Structures are given as structure tokens and as C-alpha cells.
């Protein structure tokens, strides 16, 4: 586990399945995460958690409030390349925790962890170009915009641009 002032990065437990079930079934949130949302059962969400945890090239942590241990989101580094020392970031917060400082602290802790434990030097991410709040968050966190894939994903009846960002740790 990784402890911050207000957030805790820990493995998910059985008590977190209902929270993750709600996230995975929030279609607006899933579209914002560049996912193709589908209805998820508790069984499917449990299988998704197990898959994330078993993938050799992925690090996955549940984010929890340090005081209550209540789940508030998750963070992951996928497509980890230990030769190039890079990976793809994903972070998702429950709606009650957006703007409360949890994501900022979690990202700082996670970046330090992947740098100091796995020698990761570069983190990349993809975000919908019209998700200005997320882009502002990443810019504030030291990420640089490095490109845009024009009309890259088809969602909600239209093609949308995807902004590419990166940060050297």
C-alpha cells in the first residue's frame, strides 16, 4: 500500500466491487475514459478486476480515502515496456471525489512509485480533446500535449479527436 495525506493506493478488495460496478456502468464516465461501455454485472466487474491485477504489463491500484478506506477511484499504468521504461496512464475518480484533491495526490504518489520501483521514465496518456477539465488537470500535473489524433474514436454518433500527452518522470 502507498499512503498519502488523504489518499491510499491499495489493491482492490471484495468490498470495492460495488463501487467499481457503479463506475463501470456509468456510461458517460466510460465514454470519457475512451471505453466502449457495456452493461456490466458484478461477476463481469470482478473478472475485470482480476484481469487487471493479473496482467504482467499493468499496475493497478484502487484509490481510497485514507481515513475511511472508502474507494474513491482507481489508477493504472498499462502497456508497461520495461526496456523503453514507459507505460500508459489511466485514472478514474468517482464523481463525489472529483475536484477534491484525491486525483492530484494519487497521481503524484503513483508517479513516484512507478519511477522508483520500476524505473519508469515516461508516462503517456490519451484523452478526449473536448475533455478540457482532464487536459487542464494533466497540464497542471506536468504533462505536455504532444499531438492530436483527428477523428480517432467514434462515440455518441460522431468521430472525436484524441489528445496525446506525456510526462518524463
Describe what this molecule looks like in 3D.
- Its EC number is 2.3.1.57.
- The chain contains five helices and eight strands; from the N terminus they run E-E-H-H-H-E-E-E-H-E-H-E-E.
- With 169 residues, it is an alpha+beta fold.
- The chain has a single domain, classed as Gcn5-related N-acetyltransferase (GNAT) (Aminopeptidase).
- Strands 1-2-3-4-5-6-8-7 form an eight-stranded mixed beta sheet, sandwiched between helices.
- Strand 4 and strand 5 form a beta hairpin.
- The two termini are 21 Å apart.
| CATH class group | Alpha Beta
Please list the strands of the largest sheet in the order they lie side by side: 1-2-3-4-5-6-8-7
CATH superfamily: Gcn5-related N-acetyltransferase (GNAT)
Report the β-strand fraction as a percent range: 35-45%
**In sequence order, what are the helices and strands, one letter per element?**
EEHHHEEEHEHEE
Structural class: alpha+beta
Please work out how many helical segments DSSP would assign.
5
Helix proportion of residues, in percent? 25-40%
Number of self-contained structural domains: 1
The major pleated sheet works out as: 8 strands, mixed
Name the features.
alpha+beta; Aminopeptidase; 8 strands; globular
Short synopsis of the structure:
The chain starts with a strand and ends with a strand. It has helices spanning 17-24, 27-32, 42-54, 102-118, 132-140, and strands at residues 2-3, 7-10, 59-65, 71-81, 86-93, 122-128, 144-155, 158-168.
